[in-house]
Amino acid sequence: MVEVGVDVARDASGRWRHPARWHRARPDLSPADVPA
After folding, report:
1. Which domain holds residue 26?
2. What keywords appear on the UniProt entry (predicted)?
3. CA distances in angstroms from 17 to 3, 6, 8, 25, 31, listed in the order given
4. pLDDT of 1-36, one tens digit each?
5. What residues have CB less than 8 Å from 24, skipping those under 6 apart?
6. 13 is a domain residue
């Protein structure tokens, strides 16, 4: 698992303006720990 940061800004056509950025690895978490 990793932490990411995202900017939710969109351009006029609805596309994301900025890519997601990787922050850090989270070896203490598994996919089962993430709410669905």
Report:
1. 2-30
2. Ligase
3. 20, 10, 8, 24, 27
4. 999 988 889 889 988 888 889 999 999 999 999 887
5. 2, 3
6. yes
